[in-house]
Amino acid sequence: MEMKLTIKRVPTVVSNYQEEGAAADAANDRPRAGCGRDCLGDCCLPDSKLPLYAFKASPKKPSSQEDAANTDFFVNLLLGLWEDKMARGLFRYDVTACETKVIPGNLGFVAQLNEGRHLKKRPTEFRVDRVLQPFDAAKFNFTKVGQEEVLFQFENGGGDDSFFLKSAPISVADRAPNVVAINVSPIEYGHVLLIPRVLDRLPQRIDQESFLLALHMAAEAASPYFRLGYNSLGAFATINHLHFQAYYLTVPFPVEKAATKRIFLAEGVMNSGVKVSKLMNYPVRGLVFEGGNSLNDLASVVSSACIWLQDNNVPYNVLISDCGKKIFLFPQCYAEKQALGEVSQELLDTQVNPAAWEISGHIVLKRRSDYEEASEASAWRLLAEVSLSEERFEEVKAYIFDAAGLVQSDEEEVSEDEDAAAYTPVSIAPAVAEGCLVLQ
C-alpha cells in the first residue's frame, strides 16, 4: 500500500491573486472572451499587449568598452520596471527597508531580517513524496496572475543583438509566451519569477528548453550579482507551475566562495566542454557545472542531471550563478525527513524551509531575535540536515553522470581551491539552538 507523505505548510504568497478569493476562478483552462481581470490565462492573454525583451540568440563576451557598458541594460531595465511596480504599491511589504548583514565566519552567510514575509499566508496541504505531480488547474497557478504584475515577455530575438519594446502583441500561434513577473513577497531587491510558456501550464519540472531559457536570462543580466534559483517539488517549491526565481544581491553567496574539487572526465566521451566539480567543506553536498562550448551545451548536461533526479523522485535545488556560466545542483532530503518525523522539534520550531537561496547561504529571518543571534554555526547545523549522506550522494552522483553522458576518469580528483584542505567546518551540535534561522 502506498504511503502518502504530507506536511502542513504555509506557502509564501508570490502573487496578489493567490488569495482564495482572487484565485477561485479555475475556469481559465478554457478559452473565453475575457474574464475582466487582464490575467495571464487563455481568456485574456492572447488578445493583450505587454512589454517585450528579446534576448540575443548567442551570448558573446563584450569586445569593447561600449559593448561592456551595454551589458548593464537588462539589469537596469528589470530593476527600473521592478521599482515602478513597487511605487504602484503592488508588493506586500518594502523589502528595500529590510536589514541585511554578513554573518562573521569563514563562509560569510548573509542574513536578512524580513518581518513582513510571513504575514497573510494561507495554509495548505503540501505533498512532499512526489517530485513530479500533474498540473492542477483548480489550484493557484500563474495563469491567474494579473498582467499588472508582469514586467515583460522574454523571448529569443533570433539575432546577434537584444532589444526591448514597450508594447508588443502576444503571439501564441507558434508557442506560448515566456513572461517575467514580480514576486509580491520578495526576498531581495529585484525579486522576479521567470515563467516559461505560461499558457502551456507546465508542472514544476525542468526540461532542456526551460533550463536554457533560464541560462539566457542570466547571460542577458551579465552581472555576478543577479542569480536564478529553482526548487523542485519536495524541495520547497510552493507552486506546481513551472517557474524560476531571480533577484539582485550585491554580495557573493557563501556557496560561490566554497572550495570545490574537480572531477576529471574520461576523454572522448563528450565534447561539450562542461567541467564538473563537487563542493568541499560546505554543509550541503552538491555538484558544480561550469564552462561548456555554448549555453546550450551547459543546459543539456545540467538539465539531463535534473531530469534524472525528478524522474527518480529525488528532490533538488539549483542555483544559476556567474552570468549563467556556473550551475550549482543540490539533491536534498529535508522535506522527506521532516515528513517522516526525523527532524528534531527544536529545528522544526525555527520554521525553516531550506530551498535554493537558503542552501546557497542567503538566510531570511522573520524575527529580530533570530537576526541578532544568527551565526555561522547555526546556519551550518541547519544546512547539514538538508544534505544527502556521503554514501547516498555518491550513489546519486553516479546515476546523474550516467544520465548526462559523463564518465569519470581514473585520474585523481584535485582541489580547485588551495584553501580546500585548510578549512575545517564549524563543530555541529546535535540540535539547532532556538531562534537560529530562516523562513522560506
From TrEMBL:
GO biological process, one term: glucose metabolic process
Gene Ontology molecular function: GDP-D-glucose phosphorylase activity; guanyl-nucleotide exchange factor activity; hydrolase activity; nucleotide binding
Recorded catalytic activity of this chain's protein: GDP-alpha-D-glucose + phosphate = alpha-D-glucose 1-phosphate + GDP + H(+)
Enzyme class: transferase
Keywords, comma-separated and alphabetical: Cytoplasm, Guanine-nucleotide releasing factor, Hydrolase, Nucleotide-binding, Nucleotidyltransferase, Transferase
Source species, domain of life: Eukaryota
EC number: 2.7.7.78
A Pfam family reported for this protein in Swiss-Prot or TrEMBL: GDPGP1_N
Compartmental location: Cytoplasm
Claim: Nucleotide-binding is one of the keywords in the record: yes
GO annotation, cellular component aspect: cytoplasm
Domain named GDPGP1-like C-terminal: residues: 254-405
GDPGP1-like N-terminal domain ranges (all copies): 74-247
The protein's role, per its UniProt record: Specific and highly efficient GDP-D-glucose phosphorylase regulating the levels of GDP-D-glucose in cells.
Family: Belongs to the GDPGP1 family.
Official protein name in the record: GDP-D-glucose phosphorylase 1
Gene that this sequence comes from: LOC102721498
